Amino acid sequence: MAKIPNDQLKTLRGRAIYVSARIPEIKIEAAALQDERKSVIAKAKVSSGDQLKQLNHRKTYIIMRVGILRAEQKQLIAEKKDLIEKLKAARA
After folding, report:
1. Which helix (H) or strand (E) holds 47?
2. Fewer CB within 10 Å, N side or C side of the chain?
3. Interval 14-46: pLDDT, tens
4. Do 59 and 37 contact (CB within 8 A), yes or no?
5. Phi then psi dihedrals of residue 7, to 5 deg
6. Cα–Cα distance measured from residue 38 to residue 47, given in angstroms and rounded to the nearest whole number
7. Is 30 in contact with 69 (CB distance < 8 Å)?
8. C-alpha–C-alpha distance, residues 80 and 50, integer Å
9. What Cα–Cα distance (Å) separates residue 62 from each residue in 7, 16, 20, 84, 85?
């Protein structure tokens, strides 16, 4: 692999740091949303009318948001592997 210029190497290192920090944040956010989803479901069982409608909207939002977070997490994990390979190659 060709030698990577210093400015690109800095960018790769910075991106690797961001990715490494973002992955655990995604896990935490997804877990918090899953906990909220459970409480929304419990509230919905005893609700009716407009409150039930609002709770269903919130549950739908949570489900969609968790899906987006999982997709982002998968993408970042793949990117992290690629960044690690590029940084190893740059050191060689």
Report:
1. none
2. C
3. 999 999 999 999 999 999 999 999 999 999 999
4. yes
5. -65, -40
6. 14
7. yes
8. 44
9. 40, 28, 24, 32, 35
Dist. CA 84–CA 91, nearest whole Å = 11
**Encoded tokens for 76:** 């970042």
Percent of the chain with pLDDT over 90: 80
Instruction: Residue 64: count other Cβ atoms within 10 Å of its Cβ.
Output: 10
Q: Supply 52's token pair.
A: 């039930």
Tell me the C-alpha distance between 35 and 14, whole Å.
32
